[in-house]
UniProtKB/TrEMBL annotation:
Alphabetical UniProt keywords: FAD, Flavoprotein, Oxidoreductase
Enzyme Commission number, as recorded: 1.6.99.3
Protein name from the UniProt record: NADH dehydrogenase
Protein source organism: Cupriavidus alkaliphilus
Gene3D superfamilies recorded: 3.50.50.100
Length: 402
C-alpha cells in the first residue's frame, strides 16, 4: 500500500516542494519505494506572477508536467475545496467537474495567496488587476481596445491603486505599453494612489530616492496619505474627496493567504498565514506542513519572517519538501533558514533598483538593476529542465542562490 505525500498548490512553493520531496525519496532508494508524491493544482503550469504586469502576460505560463514526470511526481488537475485534517484527506473538484476525496499520510499546504479586495463600492465591477493570469490578460485586452475609444483626458488617464511593489511595477511599465498602443504623440496621465504617507511603504527608505526619481522621470503622479474609497466606470474618489476621472483603474491593494489556511489551523496572522515550527510543520496539526505565502516562517536568527514573494516561496518549498518526506520516512527534519534577502524592483524605462538585506541597501540601479531583474525573472525563478538529475538537484535545500 502506498504512503502518499499530497501537495496542495502548483505555484513556486508547491512545485519546489515536490522537487524537494522527490529528492529525499530518490536518495532513500528502496526504503522509500512505497512513497507516492502527488501535486494538486487547478492547472498543469506555473504562472510567473512577478511578470504579469508586463505587456504579454499570456506568455507567463510555464508547463511543469515534464518536470514532475522526470522525478516521478503524480499530478491531479483540480482545486482542493476542503481539507479534513483529522481524517487525513482532502476534497477535490477536478478539471472535468467531478469530485473526489483523496487521502494522505502527509500534507503540504502551498496554495499561495490572492489579491486583497475590500468591499469598496464599484471595485469588483470597474477595477482591473494583475494578480492572476486571466486578470492580466483582461487588462491587456482593455488597453489594446483604447484606440477605438474617443480620445480625451478620461481615456488617457490611468489610476493605479497601491504604491507598493506591484503597484510601482505596474505604473512604471505603463508608459512604454501605452506608447506602443496609443502612439508617441499621446501623453498618458498615470496616477498612483497610496494610502500610506509615502510611496513604497513596505520597501522602506533605502530605495525610495531611486523610486521617486524614476516616477518623476516617467512623469507619473502620486497621491499619498489617502486611499481610494470608491470606484466607478469613470474613475475613483479618494479619502480626501478628490475625484480622479480615469478610464482605467488598476487595483494592487495587498495580498492575503489562500482561504484554505483557516481549514487547517486557527493560528493565523492578519494576512491569514499559518504559524509553523522551524521545520515548517503547521502548529497544532498532525502530519501537515506549509510553504510559501500561506505561512509566516522565521527566516533567520535576527527575527525576520518570510514575505509573500517567490523568493521565499521557492526556497521554502525545498525545505518543506525535504522535511515532509523525511518525516514520513522517519528521518531527521531540518530547520528552514534563508539568511540572504534581496529585492529587485522594476521601474520601467528608468531601469530597476536592486537592494540587499532587510534594511534594503541599494546595490544596483538603472541599467545594471534592470539586467539583474531580467536575470531573476527569466532564469532564477523558472523551473529546471525536465531532466531528472537537474530537477532533483533543484530540490536541494542546502543550495543557496545569491
Amino acid at each position: 500500500m502506498k504512503r502518499r505525500i499530497l501537495i496542495v498548490g502548483g505555484g513556486f512553493a508547491g512545485l519546489w516542494t515536490a522537487l524537494g520531496a522527490a529528492r529525499v525519496v530518490d536518495m532513500q532508494g528502496g526504503a522509500a519505494a512505497d512513497v507516492e508524491i502527488t501535486l494538486v493544482s487547478p492547472r498543469p503550469e506555473l504562472h510567473v506572477r512577478p511578470r504579469l504586469h508586463e505587456a504579454h502576460p499570456e506568455q507567463m505560463a510555464v508547463p511543469f508536467l515534464p518536470v514532475l514526470d522526470a522525478v516521478g511526481v503524480k499530478f491531479i488537475e483540480g482545486s482542493v475545496e476542503r481539507i479534513h485534517v483529522a481524517d487525513h484527506c482532502v476534497e477535490i473538484t477536478r478539471a472535468d467537474g467531478q469530485t473526489s476525496t483523496e487521502g494522505y499520510e502527509r500534507l503540504v499546504l502551498a496554495s499561495g495567496s490572492r489579491l486583497f479586495r475590500p468591499p469598496l463600492p464599484g471595485l469588483a465591477e470597474h477595477a482591473f488587476a494583475v494578480d492572476q493570469l486571466h486578470e492580466a490578460v483582461a487588462l491587456r485586452e482593455h488597453l489594446e481596445r483604447l484606440p477605438s475609444q474617443p480620445e480625451g483626458p478620461q481615456r488617457n488617464t490611468f489610476v493605479v491603486v497601491g504604491g507598493g511593489f506591484t503597484g510601482l511595477e505596474v505604473a512604471t511599465e505603463l508608459p512604454q505599453r501605452l506608447c506602443a498602443i496609443l502612439g508617441e504623440t499621446v501623453r498618458p496621465r498615470i496616477v498612483i494612489v497610496e494610502r500610506a504617507d509615502a510611496i513604497g511603504p513596505d520597501l522602506g527608505p533605502g530605495p525610495r530616492p531611486q523610486i521617486l526619481q524614476a516616477l518623476e522621470q516617467l512623469g507619473i503622479e502620486t497621491r499619498v496619505g489617502a486611499g481610494v474609497v470608491s470606484v466607478d466606470a469613470g474613475g475613483v474618489v479618494t479619502a480626501t474627496g478628490e475625484r480622479i476621472d480615469a478610464g482605467t483603474v488598476i487595483w494592487t491593494g495587498g495580498m492575503i493567504a489562500s482561504g484554505l489556511t483557516a481549514q487547517v489551523s486557527p493560528h493565523l496572522d492578519r494576512q491569514g498565514r499559518m504559524e509553523v515550527s522551524a521545520d515548517l510543520r503547521v502548529t497544532g496539526t498532525s502530519g501537515v506542513f506549509g510553504a510559501g505565502d500561506v505561512v509566516r516562517a522565521l527566516t533567520d536568527d535576527d527575527g525576520h519572517y518570510s514575505l509573500m514573494s517567490c523568493q521565499h516561496a521557492l526556497y521554502m518549498g525545498r525545505f518543506a519538501g525535504h522535511n515532509v518526506a523525511a518525516d514520513l520516512l522517519g528521518l531527521p527534519t531540518i530547520a528552514y533558514r534563508q539568511d540572504f534577502y534581496a529585492t529587485c524592483l522594476d521601474l520601467g524605462a528608468w531601469g530597476a533598483v536592486y537592494t540587499e538585506g532587510w534594511d534594503r541597501r541599494v546595490k544596483l540601479t538603472h541599467a545594471e538593476g534592470k539586467a539583474r531583474k531580467l536575470l531573476i525573472n527569466t532564469q532564477w525563478i523558472y523551473p529546471p529542465a525536465a531532466d531528472r538529475e537537474q530537477a532533483l538537484a533543484a530540490g536541494n535545500p542546502e543550495v543557496t542562490y545569491t
